[in-house]
Design goal:
The protein is an all-beta fold and about 90 residues long. It has a single domain, classed as SH3 type barrels (Roll), CATH 2.30.30. Helix content is about 0%, strand content about 50%. The chain has strands at about 10-15, 30-35, 40-50, 55-65, 70, 75, 80, 85-90. The strands form 2 sheets. A 6-stranded mixed sheet has the order 1-8-2-3-4-7, with no helix packed on it. Strands 5-6 form a two-stranded antiparallel ribbon. It is globular and about 45 Å long. The mean pLDDT is about 85.
Length: about 90
């Protein structure tokens, strides 16, 4: 359903980092991610890491249209996706 990142591209990570603290660049419980669906960004809060590069999260917004629903999905729906679908990750 979601669009995969271009081959050999990596997730863009953003957020506050404490000086001297090393972070693993992996998607983790509680992170917010953006997934692409057509021309719309689907903003998702991860509620559970399923393992094997699979995740489940809850939609908390759509960007570009700012709608409450898009393509049959609506805010607060749970969605499953793979790491290859994650464009950006914010913690």
């Amino acid at each position: 359903m979601f669009t995969k990142r271009v081959a050999h591209s990596s997730i863009i990570y953003a957020g506050e980092r404490l000086y001297g603290v090393r972070y693993n660049d992996t998607v983790a419980n509680g992170d917010n991610v953006a997934l692409l669906l057509g021309t719309e960004l689907v903003l998702v809060e991860i509620v559970q890491v399923m393992g094997g590069s699979r995740f489940r999260g809850r939609i908390h917004g759509f960007q570009l249209s700012c709608a409450r629903a898009f393509n049959g999905m609506k805010i607060h729906d749970e969605v499953a996706f793979e790491e290859a679908h994650v464009l950006t990750c914010f913690r």
